[in-house]
């Protein structure tokens, strides 16, 4: 079985973000393969710890992926501030005798350094075209946990667990490995909080992660962390604004200072996205939707709303308003050129992570979340059939079947983009439908 088949069989997807199936990404041919170890979201601590704890496995998985796509160079992107981790990686790259192929690329401590297109530019100087993907400029990007999973796939192990960070206004900040399909409430209680009536949970990082409506749900392969804050925290209030509320405030208050555009990471890479124009468009009636097509270029980093706007408006919401309208009409933005160059002021407008953390009120919680042994003995998991880009997995088990950890329980539909899913605990299938396969231990 070759690497592509091993990765496909293991059900590997991007460990974070949208969860693009890794076997499809590695079917490309590229000049560079880049490892995204930036972990730019404040408070999350998975990638940096994995690179320190499993350097050999990550380097081997990363190198194998690079050879698969025939990349001339494999660049491991990590923020320069992580000096101890960098030292470990440098030593292991030499010990594994891959220094002629794998090298470390230092990233600035800025937000959003982990945005795929920002990462590509920082490590290669190339700008991914509008509505494009890195392969268009000869790059394939994977993150550190994905590289680790590739190594395990080479050893015949499927993706059954994921690493995540618990952070925020909590007694116990930690990073743990849990089975895919674990009830989220069980994970949240590892924070030392039992009653969440006074708290709100952000699913993922504090910038891009959505506010959860409750504490229901289950961990997926993409889960990277939960940020737990008091309900009255300003960040929670800002992220909880309704569409209508943000639209009304934007219409009445925007003074067109264009700071949202001038700080936008994609605009600074030379793209046409200009959120201040979407704010302006809210106040004027126009039937010409094509001129609002640039709303589709937003990367959803939320920098415009949570940092750039000096009076706390909602530029991202304005972008999303027109983006959704265009989607309903079946309209898609068409770039007017193929080659892009970063704008001159970019270097002066990079946002230091510490400034961002202070602005969004998280400075008191910007503390270590050390890797810990997970004390959970999960009794039942609900494994989503769709936790990736593409079609849902098709069940290959039924209620009453006995399954073992690592056994395939869902396969990719024929002629579709997707990812297989596997049992994360040994037990009996108790549910098979409604988007989940449930397994009870024992």
From TrEMBL:
PANTHER family to which the protein is assigned, alphabetical: ION-TRANSLOCATING OXIDOREDUCTASE COMPLEX SUBUNIT C
Annotated ranges, domain 4Fe-4S ferredoxin-type: 245-274
GO molecular function annotation: 4 iron, 4 sulfur cluster binding; electron transfer activity; metal ion binding
Source domain of life: Bacteria
Membrane spanning residue stretches: none
Keywords: 4Fe-4S, Electron transport, Iron, Iron-sulfur, Metal-binding, Repeat, Transport
Cellular component annotations (GO), alphabetically ordered: membrane
The name this protein goes by in its record: Electron transport complex protein RnfC
